[in-house]
Every structure is written in C-alpha cells, then in structure tokens.
Write a structure and sequence with these properties.
This protein is α/β, with parallel strands linked by helices. The chain contains 8 helices and 11 strands. It has helices at residues 14-18, 27-42, 69-93, 115-123, 141-151, 185-191, 198-206, 221-226, and strands at 7-12, 46-51, 98-102, 111-112, 127-131, 156-161, 166-167, 179-180, 182-183, 211-215, 233-235.
C-alpha cells in the first residue's frame, strides 16, 4: 500500500513526551514515538512535527497564574525546545536525519526558522521538528501547528492525543460521550470543543487544511492513518 499523503504535519503535545509520567520526559516513550515517526518517513512521507511543552511548563497553567503572561509563554516556548532536542536525539539514534528549527533564535541549539530552508530539509528526506511555537506570546502550539503546516504546504495536520478522536464531552468523565468520525470547523468552534484552540481551527478553515485527531497511544495508528485507514476524527 502507498501512503495517501506526501507531506504531513504531526502535532504532539508535551504530555506525549512524558508517557506515563506526570512531568518531564520518558525516554522509552520518546523512543517509541521516534520509531513510529521513522516508520512513516521510510514509507516516503515527508514529516514535520510541532511539539508542545506542557510536560514542563505551560503559559496558561495554574503554576503561571501570578506571572506576566508574556514571560510565562516564553518559558513554555523554551520547554518545547527541550522536547525537540529529546525527540531529535531519539530519531537520530534510530538512524533518521533531522533538523530542529526554533521560532526563537537559539543558534547553538537549533536552526532559526526560514521557510524555504525548512521545505528544502523536507524535500531532502529530513524530519523537521518545529520548536518554540510561533515565537510570539498569546499563541498556542496548536496555532503554531496550523501556521507551520500552511507555510510548508502540508496536506494535513495529524494531531495525536490520548483519546480516539473528538468527542462531544470528556470521555474520561462522561461514559456516554459520543465521538465524531467527521466534524466541520464551524461546529467545532460553535460547540466549544477544546481539542484545538479556535484560532488554529479558524486558520485551518480559512485555508481548507484538514485536521485528523487520533489516539497516539495506540501503536500503529500513525502508520494506518498515512495509508488511508479511517481512524480518529476528521475536521474539514
């Protein structure tokens, strides 16, 4: 079977890097993620990744309540760089060429974001990891994912979560929660579903960029998705 996508943007939360831990990085889980990402790269899919930083610090968390929002968001951006370094290391240990690209200038650690250079890395078969969000406060890493996906002309955003897709209520709290196999951008916004923030969804709607929300904790789901299986929830 051939992949149905040539170029994807994978959105990973910081919590995905923490695995079963409540804080920090779980090396075993990061190696598992790297193996799954590497598998689709070997299938010929060009892979870009946007990482969150919630496993270390989140600008809108309770721990940032008394902080200046700009400073808190900047701390969150740096947390995504730490996650990017961990994922880069895991991918390269498994033999995949990667580039870590930061929206905040930090040249000793990562390349600055230059759109044409990022696209060239993808064309050469490198896995590109985008860190530090958009580089600006008040914007989430979901918004960064939408922005970077459009800049590199990705065909889809694949958002990995810990549940099967998008539900009308929190499935961990509501047993009768219903999953949407497909949902429109407008319905997501009007229902106030928080899988992605409204800015990111609006950007994707304006540029007709589909989003697939799927369970990242189910081994093989990423591979099945790029081969065209109906997994998770499609936002279009």
């Amino acid at each position: 079977m051939e992949p149905i996508f040539k170029r994807i943007l994978l959105k990973l939360s910081g919590e995905a890097m923490a695995g079963a831990r409540s804080f920090g990085i779980d090396p075993q889980r990061v190696n598992e993620l790297a193996a799954e990402i590497g598998e689709i790269r070997q299938m010929g899919v060009q892979v870009a990744i946007v990482l969150g930083g919630g496993n270390f610090f989140r600008g809108v968390s309770d721990s940032a309540r008394d902080m200046d929002r700009v400073a808190a968001d900047q701390m969150g951006m740096l947390a995504t760089v730490i996650n990017g370094l961990a994922l880069q290391d895991a991918l390269e240990n498994q033999g995949f060429f990667t580039r870590l690209i930061s929206a905040v200038e930090i040249r000793q650690v990562a390349e600055p974001f230059i759109r044409r250079r990022a696209i060239r890395h993808l064309e050469k078969g490198r896995i590109v990891i985008f860190a530090a969000g958009t580089g600006s406060p008040y914007f989430s890493t979901d918004t960064a994912a939408a922005l970077r996906a459009m800049e590199i002309k990705a065909e889809v955003i694949l958002k990995g979560t810990k549940v099967e897709g998008i539900y009308d209520a929190d499935p961990a709290k509501v047993k009768e929660a219903r999953m949407f196999p497909e949902i429109s951008y407008l319905e997501m916004i009007s229902r106030g579903l928080t899988v992605m923030d409204s800015t990111a969804i609006s950007m994707c709607r304006d540029h007709h960029l589909p989003i697939i929300v799927f369970n990242l904790n189910q081994p093989g789901n990423l591979r099945r998705l790029v081969l065209g299986e109906k997994i998770g929830s499609l936002v279009s």
